[in-house]
Amino acid sequence: MTDRRGIGIIGGVREMQEFSNGLRKEGKTIAFVPTMGALHEGHLSLMREGKRHGDVLVASVFVNPAQFGRNEDFNSYARDTDGDLRKMESAGVDIAFFPRADEIYPPGYETYVEVTELGKPLCGRFRPGHFRGVATVVLKLFNIVKPDTALFGQKDYQQLQIIRKMVSDLNLEVDIIGMPIVREESGLAMSSRNSYLSPEEREKAACLSLALRRIKKSFDEGERDSLALLREGYDVLAGASIGEVDYLEIRDGETLGDKAAASPGDVAALAVRIGNARLIDNTVL
Amino acid sequence: MTDRRGIGIIGGVREMQEFSNGLRKEGKTIAFVPTMGALHEGHLSLMREGKRHGDVLVASVFVNPAQFGRNEDFNSYARDTDGDLRKMESAGVDIAFFPRADEIYPPGYETYVEVTELGKPLCGRFRPGHFRGVATVVLKLFNIVKPDTALFGQKDYQQLQIIRKMVSDLNLEVDIIGMPIVREESGLAMSSRNSYLSPEEREKAACLSLALRRIKKSFDEGERDSLALLREGYDVLAGASIGEVDYLEIRDGETLGDKAAASPGDVAALAVRIGNARLIDNTVL
Prior knowledge:
Chain A is of the alpha/beta class. In chain A, 37% of the residues lie in helices and 21% in strands.
């Protein structure tokens, strides 16, 4: 482990496991925030909350190749190790874990975890293999870091539900905490991919949260018909000339099943493409 | 936990986890033998060896529905709880874990682990989904029992390699020990499925190990051509009028890849159908 001011840096899988084994032997609890780096306020809110849930707070930075499709942005995904370290330190992270891709996926790697049903709708339709890659790396990171608690953002709503389900199905003893979406002033949900947007596109992208707020307002006023709710959302997107909508749907908040009539706890979720960015957002009704 | 003479019996998943957490907190090590019951000398050899590898020896009995195909023998698979308990006790098992199927796979269960390449050849071709079911239940049992060491028989050679690979790929800290095949006097490998055989079929089934011994002898005498070696094995099977051979193959002992020329460490493996039984056996060259 390298110590850099107040933060310990671990790169090796075995070293991380031994460190965590040592903590557990001392009876200490571990809170964990897995990230792909390019940290923003959303990530930092997870870390600050994580601080309250464990004696030691571990955050990982790993841009996981297994969750990117062939034509997706793995190579262009933002990477900023120095900036990430400074931010982690300021958010109270004790251990920054930076595993290497060839240690996470050595030659001949071939074991994958799949949450079969929850991975099918929404982003699963547009990103085949994505959630298999997410579930696999999260399971591996859990086996390496051995957290008592792990924190994930609700912006990746489907991912959060898949991880919850995996943890329950595989009898993992990890408490999963989902944290509220952190937004810019315009309402745009914080995302590393916002950096792909030009200033004009960024302005346009504010309509994502606007569409979701419109749906939520209409739901709060009594509308329950999913199609009527979605039409209001589409009106907002069309008004901002968002042409490429992967989906805008209302689904059961837990099973992600179809809902013709919306009810409290359902989620309205969308994915759109603006310029080079594919952006997602959601709101719980 | 129910105590029955010298053996503790646990049925609940949470109870098992808490028991294992307690042991680990005390710094005790856990050895684990997962079985599907109908215990025979093969299983007992794993348990007796397991006794040497942990402070506490846990054995589970769970007939895993996820590893049986639709037309396979899940319903007729032998079950003998009382007999199994007696045998476990005599083999030195400290804790017998008998989970219920509806707790291992509650309604809505949907998370599966797959070792993609190792699961394809040999039995994988004839039992689609089988090794996915095996890998999934073994991972779950590991997460519940939390062993330091787990023991498996080499009779299920492909299963053993898949579990080794899963453990390595998923960063599980479990030592996997593969134990030699235990055979009846005739050479027939011990198997719960031998109980499906009539006395005549049982006699016939001795030719499986005979075919493998013939291959091994020829290999030891210098023959390296896989087809020539396999022909000798097929001669033995044909001589015993075994009509239904699922496969008889020579493969790399670790990757299970094809081998035109055999070399030390390769495995000769077969699966045949006799009466109502599908039997497997193998030998390492």
